[in-house]
């Protein structure tokens, strides 16, 4: 059962995070954006966000095969070099407490993303991590009906 609805209890906070969301959505490649959101949500165990973003990705034409492969993306041949760099960065940023962001992860991302693209990607990864933490903490549930 959901503990609270942050949108009604702290609407200003919700709108602040929504501002980051809108910025990131407008500045990161849509396909990469959804992959990053789904991967971080998987790592954070956020059922609400996994459901929402896989549904959005499928509606935008993403293949179910690639979505399923996100759980084991390092071993799956379905992702481009840029997507792989974004996913590696997502894993590192989402798991900051384990090792920070290793130089090799940063260097690979910096090879295939411009500095501005990389900055926008970091904002996107940070934003989905904020959403995940809000949703997991408040036990926000995905809709049970499609």
UniProtKB/TrEMBL annotation:
Residues 11-91 form the Carboxymuconolactone decarboxylase-like domain. It comes from the Bacteria. Gene3D superfamilies: AhpD-like. InterPro entries: AhpD-like, AhpD_core, CMD-like. GO terms for molecular function: peroxiredoxin activity. This is Carboxymuconolactone decarboxylase family protein. It comes from Micromonospora globbae.
């Amino acid at each position: 059962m959901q503990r609270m609805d942050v949108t009604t209890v702290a609407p200003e906070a919700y709108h602040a995070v929504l501002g980051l969301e809108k910025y990131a959505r407008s500045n990161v490649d849509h396909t990469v954006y959804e992959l990053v959101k789904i991967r971080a949500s998987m790592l954070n165990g956020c059922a609400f966000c996994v459901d929402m973003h896989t549904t959005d990705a499928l509606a935008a034409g993403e293949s179910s095969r690639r979505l399923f492969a996100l759980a084991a993306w390092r071993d799956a041949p379905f992702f481009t070099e840029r997507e792989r760099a974004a996913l590696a960065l997502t894993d590192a940023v989402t798991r900051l407490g384990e090792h920070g962001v290793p130089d090799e992860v940063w260097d690979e991302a910096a090879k295939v993303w411009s500095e501005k693209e990389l900055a926008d990607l970091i904002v996107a990864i940070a934003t989905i991590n904020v959403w995940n933490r809000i949703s997991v903490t408040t036990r926000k549930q995905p809709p049970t009906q499609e």
